[in-house]
Amino acid sequence: MGKKVKTAITPTRDEDYPAWYQEVVKASDMAEHSAVRGCMVIKPWGYALWENIVSKLDKMFKNTGVKNAYFPLFIPKSYLEKEAEHVEGFAKECAVVTHHKLEQDENGKLVPAGKLAEPLIVRPTSETIIGESMSKWISSYRDLPLLLNQWANVVRWEMRTRLFLRTSEFLWQEGHTAHSTEEEARERTMMMLEVYTKFVQDFLAIPVIQGHKTESERFPGAVDTLCIEAMMQDRKALQAGTSHFLGQNFAQGSNIKFQAEAKEEEFVWTTSWGMSTRVIGGLIMTHGDDDGVIMPPKVAPSHVVLIPIIRKPEEKRKIIEYCQSIKDAVSAREYGGRKLIVEIDDRDIGGARGWEWIKKGIPVRAEIGPRDMENDSVFMGRRDKSPKEKEPLKREEFINKIVDILDDIQNNLYNRAVEFRKENTHEIDEQKKFYDFFDSKNQGIHGGFVHAHWCGSAECEEKIKKDLSVTIRCIPFNSTTEQGKCICCNSTSSRRVLFSKAY
Amino acid sequence: MGKKVKTAITPTRDEDYPAWYQEVVKASDMAEHSAVRGCMVIKPWGYALWENIVSKLDKMFKNTGVKNAYFPLFIPKSYLEKEAEHVEGFAKECAVVTHHKLEQDENGKLVPAGKLAEPLIVRPTSETIIGESMSKWISSYRDLPLLLNQWANVVRWEMRTRLFLRTSEFLWQEGHTAHSTEEEARERTMMMLEVYTKFVQDFLAIPVIQGHKTESERFPGAVDTLCIEAMMQDRKALQAGTSHFLGQNFAQGSNIKFQAEAKEEEFVWTTSWGMSTRVIGGLIMTHGDDDGVIMPPKVAPSHVVLIPIIRKPEEKRKIIEYCQSIKDAVSAREYGGRKLIVEIDDRDIGGARGWEWIKKGIPVRAEIGPRDMENDSVFMGRRDKSPKEKEPLKREEFINKIVDILDDIQNNLYNRAVEFRKENTHEIDEQKKFYDFFDSKNQGIHGGFVHAHWCGSAECEEKIKKDLSVTIRCIPFNSTTEQGKCICCNSTSSRRVLFSKAY
C-alpha cells in the first residue's frame, strides 16, 4: 500500500471506527458531552446543520397539509399507562419529576420539596398527551383528518451515550395524525415515510432502504412500523426515520372518537412519525472520511470558505476586498432552495484555518493569496476530494461554476454511498456462511447488509439476535415473493428480509 | 349610550377584562390549558404566530453576529447553587427530576425507581449550564466575544397560571454572551434591548418604554436589568423583554476566564436576554377587541381569508375558481418580508365562518358571492374596523391595494396603542392623588402609567407595592433630571420613574 497518508483524524475509520466517530464530532466542533448525564451540547456548527434540516423538513410536512403545534413537556404517569405496550416500552428509561421546588434542609443544603401528588414523566414521545388533546378536538368527521407535528426535545434515559446517535435528551419532530378510515391512516403513514426518504436521499445524500419493521422491532403500541435504513461506513445499519400506523390502539387508550357521517360514533385511526438529531450521526458516518465531516451542500451550515493568505500586513486590505467581492457574488447564488453562505476566515492563525474547515466539512474552500489576486483567480479545494487536490480557477469561472460544483459534490456523496452499500450488500442462503459473515472476529473484512430468507417466527429472529447481535432491519418493500429456506431454522420462507448489525 | 352592540366575545373588556382575555384566547383557537398542571397546549393558530415571531427575531439576532446552539434541558442542582442570588430566585419554583425510571410495585402500580445521586432541575433559565460550557470554550481573548442564543422550553413552577402570560412551561429564546470588557458587555445588553424594542414595536405593533429595572426587580444575579414595558388595555403594564448585564457574577460562579492580550487571566463579562411566548399574551391584550384577537399583519399566521358564499351547488366550481385566481394573485405579493398567506374557507357552515376568522384576528376578510363575481369584485372587511363596516372593491383594486391595506392596519394598530397609552399616562406629584389613582375601588375609571418621583429607597418601593400592588416598572431611559419629592416619603428625588400595576 505504500506509506501511510497523514490524516486529520486519529484514529482512522479502519483503525477504530467508534473512536474515529467521537473524534470527528469533536474535531468538527459540532457537539460535545455535557456534564449532565447523557445530555449533549449542540454547538453552533452542529446546530446550524440541524436548523437547515428542520427548515427543509418543516416545509415538506406543511406541503402535505400538516400544521405545527406544541404540547406539554410533562406527561402524567397515568397517561403513559393508557396503552399497555406503550408503557412497557417507555417506563424503563424516563426522567421522573417528583417535586416542584428546592428547599434548604437543617444543614443549609438544598433538597427537593413540594412533592407532587402524581409524578410527571418528561416526554419520551407524545402519543398519549397529544391523544388527550385529540379526544377534545375531534367530535365529527368534519374535524378529520387532524394533521399535527411538533418540534421538541424528548428524553429517554440512556446509560451508554454517543453524541447524536444515542443521548438521553435529543431534539426531534413528532408528527401525529388522526383519520376517519384505516385506509387513509395507512396512506398517511406511507406518505410521511416517502417524505423522509426524499429528504434523507435528496438532502442528506444518504441512500436508504424502505420497509416494515418486524413485530418485535415495532414502536410500542403500533400496528405497523415503517422505517428507512441506511448503511454506515462500518457497514452497520442506522434507522434514519420511522412512520407508525397505530391502528385504533391509541384512540381507544385516549378515547378519541368521531361521529361518522350518518353513522355511529367510531374510534379514529392514528399515525405518528419522527425524525431526530440522530440523522446527524448518520450523515457523519455515511460521508465522513479520515479528515473529518463532509457536509452535503444542500444542508451545509455554510457552503464556501474564502481563506485569504496574507504574508505582508500592507497586502491585507486589498486581499480582503478581493475576497469580499467574491463573497458578494457567490452569496447571491442559490442552491437547494437556499442562498449560498460564504465565510471569509481572516484569522491570524495561518494554515490551521484550512484544516479546521476540512474537519468541519465545508463543501468548498478557496485560498486567495497575492498571486491568486494578481491572476484574478482562486485556489479551490473540494471537500469530497483529497485535501491536496486543489485547482486554480479564474474568479469569474469560480463564481459562475460554484452552483454546479456544489451540485456535483452533492451527487458524488450520494453516488459514493450507493456504491458502498452495493459493495457491502449480499444475498446469503447458507446458515454457516451467514454466521461467518457476521462473525465479529471477521469484522475488519466482513459484515454488511444481508438479504436472507426468514420464516417469520420471532424465535428465529431472537436466536440470530442473541447469537450474532444481528437484527432484521426491515422487510423491504421491494423484496419480491421468492421461495426459500429460513436462514435460521431451514423451514419454508416466501421472501428475503434485511439483516444487519445496527446502531 | 344607546343599546348595547352585540359582540363575539362575552364578557367584554369593560365588563371583566381577565375573563375577556381567557375567552379571547379560547375563541381564537390559539391555546388551551392542558390537563398537566400549569402547562399549556399551543394550538396551530397560536403556534403559527409564534413561528413568525421566532423567524423574524432569529434573523435580527443573527444580523448582530449571534449564533444558535442547544444546551441540556436538565441542570444539576449544584450548578444552580453557583450564584447565590440566582439559586434564591429560582429554587422556589422548579421541576425536580429525582428518578430515571418507573417500576411496578408489589400491587402492580408504577412507581418512580432508579433514584439519581444528584437531583436534576428542569431549566428555569440556562445561565449556569451555559456558563459551564463557556468556561471550557473560552481561554483567550481570541475566543471573545462569544455570542450564543438558544430557542428552548423552560419551566418555572406556577400555582396560578394564565395562557401565554404565566404558565409552568413556556417557550422562549435566551441569549448568552461573553465579552472581554465591561463596556462591550454593556453595549451588547443595550443592543439586544434595541432589537427587542424594534421587533415589538415594528412587528407586534406594541409601543414600549425602555428603562432599567430597580435593584429589587432585577434578574437574580444581574448587575443591571434593562426592560421594555408595554401598556395593556386594562392599563396594566406587561414586561415584553429583558436584557441583563451580569457583570462578572456568573463568570466567577462558573469560572469563565480568558487570557487577555499581554495581560493576566481575567473573568469575562456576560449578558443574557430573553423573550418568550408571553409576548403573545401582550399582543392579544394590546390589540384585541370585544370581537376577539387582532393580528398585526407583519406576524399574522395568515393575512387574508376568502369566503365564498355559495347558495346553489352549481355555482360552487366557478366561485371557487374565482377565489383561487384571487388567492394566486395575492399570494404572490409580499409584506413585512413574507409572501402573503391566503386562506380559502369553503366549509359548509355558512356565516359562522366570518365570525370564526374575526375571532382569530385575521387582518383581512373578503366575501365572494355570485353577485361579487359578476361585478368582478370582492366584499372586504378589515379586522381593525367594525365587523359591519365592509366595502366592495374591484378585484384588481383589491389585489393591487392589499399590501397597502395591510400596512395601514399595521400602522393603525400601533398608533391606536400609542394613543391609548398617552391617554392613560400621567405625571402625579401628590401622594393622595397617587393613592387615589391606583385605588382598586376606582379601577373601572382609574389606573394606568404614572411618572412620579422616587427617592431611590427600597423601603418606599416596597411600601407602595404593599399598599397598592403597584411596582416601579422601570427607570425610563428618557426620564430627564428634574428636582422633585418622593411620592412615598417626600424626600428629595432627582427624577421620575414609571409606576404601574403589572402582569
Task: Tell me briefly what this model is.
Chain A is of the alpha+beta class. In chain A, 33% of the residues lie in helices and 28% in strands.
What does this protein look like?
- Two copies of one chain form a homodimer.
- In chain A, 33% of the residues lie in helices and 28% in strands.
- Chain A has 503 residues and is α+β, with helices and mostly antiparallel strands.
- Chain A folds into three domains: 17-287, BirA Bifunctional Protein, domain 2; 304-405, Anticodon-binding domain (Rossmann fold, 3-Layer(aba) Sandwich), CATH 3.40.50; 425-500, C-terminal domain of ProRS (Translation Initiation Factor IF3).
- Chain A has an eleven-stranded mixed sheet, sandwiched between helices.
- In chain A, a hairpin with a 7-residue loop joins strand 20 and strand 21 (390-394).
- The model of chain A has no long low-confidence stretch (mean pLDDT 95).
- The interface between A and B is large, with 61 and 62 residues.
- Strand 5 (96-104) of chain A pairs antiparallel with strand 5 of chain B, so a sheet runs across the interface.
Lay out the secondary structure:
2 copies of one chain form a homodimer.
Chain A: H1 17-27, E1 31-33, E2 40-42, H2 44-63, E3 67-68, E4 74-76, H3 77-80, H4 84-90, E5 96-104, E6 110-122, H5 127-137, E7 146-155, E8 169-179, H6 182-202, E9 209-212, E10 224-231, E11 237-245, H7 249-254, E12 257-259, E13 265-267, E14 269-276, H8 278-287, E15 304-308, H9 316-331, E16 334-335, E17 338-339, E18 342-344, H10 352-360, E19 364-368, H11 370-374, E20 377-382, E21 390-394, H12 395-423, E22 425-427, H13 431-438, E23 449-453, H14 458-468, E24 471-476, E25 484-485, E26 492-493, E27 496-500
